[in-house]
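Troubleshooting log. The previous run stalled partway through. Resubmitting the same two chains, unchanged.
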Amino acid sequence: MTEEKILLDHGSGGKVSHSMFSDIILPLFENPELSKQDDGATLDIDGAKLAFSTDSYVVDPIFFPGGNIGDLAVNGTINDISMCGAIPKFISVGLIIEEGLSIKDLKSILETMATAAKKAGVKIVTGDTKVVPRGKADKIFINTSGIGVIPDNVEVSGHNAKPGDKIIVSGTIADHGITVLSSREGLKFDSDIKTDSAPLNHMVQSIVQSDCDVHVLRDPTRGGLGTTLNEIAVQSQVGIKIDEQSLPIRGAVQGTCELLGFDPLYIANEGKLIAFVKPEDAQKALEIIQQDEFGKDAVIIGEVIDETPGKVFLQTAIGGSRIVDMLTGEQLPRIC
Amino acid sequence: MTEEKILLDHGSGGKVSHSMFSDIILPLFENPELSKQDDGATLDIDGAKLAFSTDSYVVDPIFFPGGNIGDLAVNGTINDISMCGAIPKFISVGLIIEEGLSIKDLKSILETMATAAKKAGVKIVTGDTKVVPRGKADKIFINTSGIGVIPDNVEVSGHNAKPGDKIIVSGTIADHGITVLSSREGLKFDSDIKTDSAPLNHMVQSIVQSDCDVHVLRDPTRGGLGTTLNEIAVQSQVGIKIDEQSLPIRGAVQGTCELLGFDPLYIANEGKLIAFVKPEDAQKALEIIQQDEFGKDAVIIGEVIDETPGKVFLQTAIGGSRIVDMLTGEQLPRIC
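Second attempt completed without errors. Output:
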């Protein structure tokens, strides 16, 4: 018997990642906060309701059109906190740097982190720097963790989807993943696409502080929209039906996907959210999202159905219907 | 002009690390929480007083006598939170795994993390796993971030040292660094030393909840006792005098240091703290520390003096006195 090893798939955010979490991690650390499996944990500390989240960034290359690993890391944790309905307040930064990184590059990265934090109104309050010898890491890895405050009466969770809920996506999908892929050595090709990396905290507060009944918020990062919808279908034990023709995809992104054989449903986004909203409130919630600077292209893409719990269906452009599974395998390593 | 690059020194925790923090990081992110430069940030959230800290672990090898990268990472963040006077409550875990790590090793690491968290009474509530291709990291890197609650009336900080304060160290120094070094390929030699990695949260609460007047708590990790004392001398603008003969060092550790030319004052500890206590309360605080399971070897090693602000002096065994500077250069890369 050969020894079992960690594969790239274990970090895909898709099926193998989920199995590892369920089979290895959850049984060891079981507690109510972790078991919820939302983008962050919701905590009750001395009466304050907080959200707490962590993410490590290992994107390759570290600079790409529209951003770099630094603002990606700041926006990513801001968004994970936001998807708990929380207002992100404080962020920590852990740098693991490969010996030999140019100080100029480090400064550029840190500058964009400072700018991203400022734009979102969060403070970077604590940090740590480790340096490993050349060849023992790849340029720079960044961990960001964050704390947010959950306003009274806000309760969103992947467990709260209800049959009838309309599903809104806040803009075009697959921009980030295709941008990073297009920037890799040997794959460079002309295109005007850029990462969608953006802070969604203000958009989220506009929705949750409105009188719209929002049940679920989630940002479809690693694993893409297809995987995230599957997670919610399982967490809430509902079926989900989305309409292929309604999916907002930029022409250049769609073209690249076709050229390289990728399904945009599984490509990472870094500045988009999906919101599950009570049907009566869906149109209003959509308009609120569209008013946000990062939500102009928001559309309703589907709804929650009462049948087939745990399954996601896509109504295709030609009138058929197919199951959308979680990502299997690893399409694009080191996309975030 | 050659381009400036990141060197191992930048991650030493010593002089070059401090310059990078002061020259590059602090000006970009300046805010009152970060500027304090304690082991964690102290935050006021909705009336709750919290401590927040982060650390990445890149230790090599990942298994060593007495522990592994997993419990090191959990205890490390527990201790950073504790040094703010806080009771650590919640921890996040960010794994960066090199493709090819054996699942058996990963399980061992995660199991010791769960055990360490349980022992300290903290919950691991949120996490993230990334996998990078073989050769792009070294086995596994772990980030832990943590949140703790600061009890009312507790206020400790590196800024609070006062002339006259007695300085207590909670046990033998340099155990962790010398253990890891001794475990490296090519350097293995027989010895019964093991890491001192341990959670100090209960010890800290026993001291701060007593009626002893504790001004500073700090765990002398990277850079060792010598560097940590320098940090406090600078933060509080006081002088510090320590007595060489009082320093608790195991024979095997002292012997290895002499053999390899290391100064134990600059070798990392992972389960020790130093406490600066009002002189009248010092004996009582010492006894409280000695009653803790990780404080049996605690001793008073020196005091704060009214002269030479920012400087640390060592009274040598032969009656002389020498300046103890911060660590310059990097003695032992990847020690934590």
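Takeaways: Residues 89 and 122 of chain B are 5 Å apart (CA to CA). Chain B touches chain A through 80 residues (CB under 8 Å).
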